[in-house]
TrEMBL record:
Protein name as it appears in the record: Molybdenum cofactor synthesis domain-containing protein
Pathway(s): Cofactor biosynthesis; molybdopterin biosynthesis
Keyword DNA repair: no
Entries under CDD domains matching the protein: MogA_MoaB
Domain MoaB/Mog: from-to ranges: 8-150
Signal peptide residue numbers: none
Species annotation: Corynebacterium spheniscorum
SUPFAM superfamilies reported for this sequence: Molybdenum cofactor biosynthesis proteins
Keywords tagged on the record: Molybdenum cofactor biosynthesis
Gene3D superfamilies referenced in this protein's UniProt entry, alphabetically: MoaB/Mog-like domain
Annotated GO biological process: Mo-molybdopterin cofactor biosynthetic process
Alphabetized Pfam families for the sequence: MoCF_biosynth (PF00994)
Amino acid sequence: MSNQRTGLVVVVSTRAAAGEYQDETGPRLVEFLRELDFDTPEPIIVADADIASAIEEIVRNRMPSVLLTTGGTGITHDDRTVEAVEPHIERAMPGIVNDFFRRGLEQTPLAIVSRAVAGTRGHSFLMTLPGSKGAVKDGIATLRPVLPHIMTMLERA
């Protein structure tokens, strides 16, 4: 295993994948990971319908130290990110999700209408985030103080 921590951000949005709008949440998550010294490329953008195959490919071929997704966590028929990521989590980390939702509820009662999962797979950490700027801000606030420690623990495993 390389000493360089790696990150990968996947933006899940059919409209962004079609070029109908410019996503801002993916670049913000990339910036956050780079601030923590993760070698992180620009975000990957996939349509909602393609998230399961994209996650399968990432897990099989290029699993990073940290995999963050943004978007596709709502309750509409095409929101499939949680279902795509959750089967790949070996150890769930509900405390991370609880803190994330606590932060969201401080801003809006609608925060609990979304869904999120977080956990580990081997030496990697995975988390799904909603696609709003506010949710990504809350996700960063949740992860910033604990992600370095999580990585240290996973690297020792």
